[in-house]
Input
Amino acid sequence: MDISDLPALNASLNALASVFLTTGYVLIRRGRQDAHKRCMLLALTTSALFLTSYVIYHANAGSVPFPGVGAIRVVYFAVLIPHVLLAATILPLALVTTARGLRGDYVRHRRIARWTLPLWLYVSVTGVIVYLMLYQLY
Output
């Protein structure tokens, strides 16, 4: 594997995090707390691996400009800008949400998880979309 393979790996990690997040949500709705905990810790681990790979890639490759023009460029930036802004908020939200869950502070855990889950899912899914638009569209 070399640096040029990392964007595809990053998209795969984002997709996998989305699967773990969705599965974890379904599990907690079904009352399966231990399985929920495992899925959410896997989502956190997968996202941490993504972040590590992302930083390594961009430290070596720099920024990759979007080559599209016209309406597709507007769509790309309409997806990218909220993705980037929300991605910056996910790390602290995910860490606080996880810490509260692991401590057994379930009332406060649920209160923040109601925000963390949809934002984290949005960032993970749009991460895949950004990858597809940037690396597979052209």
